[in-house]
Amino acid sequence: MKTRFTLLSIALMAVVAGCKDSGKENDGGIDIGQEIKVPVVLNSSVADLKTSWFSGDKIRVFSDKSSESTILQTSGTGSNVDFEGKSIAGDVFYAFYPSSTDVLCDGSSLKFTVPSSISGDVAESFPMAGYGNLTEGFVFNYALAPIAVTVNGNTHVMSLKIEAKDTSGNPADMSGEALVTFNGTEPSVKVQGGETIQFEINKMVTGSATFYIYAPAGSYKTMAVTLEDAEGVCVTEEINDAVLSISRACQVMISHSSRINLSAEGLSNCYVVSAAGNYKFNAKKVDGTPLTGSAADYLWTSVECNWTPVDDGYTYVTGAVEPMNPEWVISDVEYDQEKGEISFNASGNVGNAVIALYSEASGIRQIIWTWHIWATGISLDQMKVEHWQSKHLVNEDKELTWLDRNVGALNTMNTDNAGILGTQYQWGRKDPFPGANSIGVGTLKEGSTTTFNGGFGVTESEPFTTATMPWKVNEAFAADFSYLPDVDHTVADMARIPMTMTNTGGNWASDITVDMWGDGLAPFDTWKGWAMYNDIADEKETYETTRKAAVGKSNQDPCPPGYRVPTCEELWNSFAGWIANGYTDHWGDNISTGRSKRNYGRMIHSYTDPENIKTRIPCDGYREGGKLVKVGEAAYYWASTVDPVNYANGKLYGFRWLVGSNLRIEGCGSTAIARPVRCIAIY
Q: Least crowded by CB within 10 Å, which of 120, 367, 418, 645?
């Protein structure tokens, strides 16, 4: 490190060589307040913590002669980059990261506070201290010792607390006022004031996860890390003769499993289960309204299937494995009326299941509310497509976060894989209907390399039959999937028959409102309004003043916690593009896509990062009159927005997202039609 430091000083000489002699107050000949460029080395040895400076990072610099500090900022990326800012007086300089931390300098040491309670991920804000000067630069090291706590099991980690005893057996100070001195470039920290540090984690663990915390470096007779779960249960792991160092992470392992509260991350009608284990959720609507009943049980569930792979990645389901196992996804559903909680065990198999809270009289079960359990095999965090940007989003300096799959999808393996299709929903309704077990396989038109022959999509002749993914219904409810036309029900009525599709005048209920999924009226009735408003001043002004943003999750929202049904604007800005005759080419290069070799499904790439940020859009078709239509041939994705023209005429229509030979937004399709949903993160 010493040799590297000398090389940094040589590199900096060219930067400061032109400084004037008058007004010099620094040993290196730098004027006070002068713009400077200082090399800074990040000496980090723990891969999961901050190992690189990133553009925008800031450090706060102090000296032995100035009562003031200065902020330096970098536009580079790497472990050895230049930071820029204004100089201050001094011969010896100290620095600290993060720059926002309250730090003081007495001319020979730094002082900061180690809180007794710390929230959030410490990986990117780990306290680091630097030593050097404005001519040779700085070397940064951790100010505190990293501790890697690996939790094995299934549990909801609320907090991790650390405490220790010094070599004499007395309680050691872990938090409080910290004094930083330097031995060369390496910081030494002494802390006084508090005997514990508690890190507020609030994260679910399914299988294994590692959390980084910190404490003062040194030798301890014993060190104890205590995990507290969401049930208030505490588990402590104690290490004898512990040595904490700023140069490496101390490894601590805690094994613990408890019932995971899925509602801890937000109330929802859909909960994601990523692994086998014990789970529970609050029997409440999204808005917090408590629900009460006699008991809870599964209503219907996915079952084990026979999957048949074909060439080019085309995979479909030939049928269920017999006898069908009702516990393939979940089992042991229970309802605790006193606590208002529903609990169940998850098998770890991927699939979908619905749990019903019900009351019972004379042996007849009356459904009160239902929840979709989406067993994915991976967590919500692992399904994120973060930093999504189309050309239009870049122009507006925006980015969005989407899920990488449709609600209910079993995988994202290939656009031609039936597991990518997911469940389907009538517009404004929370209750899932099973999707297709196969996709259509098209052929290219003669003489064409880009266009398919149409009419190859999978279609059912009867509702919920040959093309539907296998399921098993709980016969104790005396119900199955069905279609009832011309039945005049209210939204409340439909909550009691979640496996029934109805259609009266194009609607599934008589009292559907525009905000069933949290949005409202769209500013335009056709795709042309969305495409043209940027070019016409009057339309742009109208758009800006009349559009309605999403208001969060509604009681009918079918997405998991932290996500909601997207607005039409969000779908358009993220994915739409159309260049065919008679349409606009305004968004022709909005996104880059690659179409499936076998059907109309697409792989869509982010405009700014096409190599790494991408998502698959399968052609789910839709369910009309209970029958699956055009599966593999076209995709129609619901938005939360409704068409103002059709709504004004007495019918409530949702916008559709058509993925066929194009990607566009259109205002059509009745609420009685069931289509897939792709969820967007709430922001």
A: 120
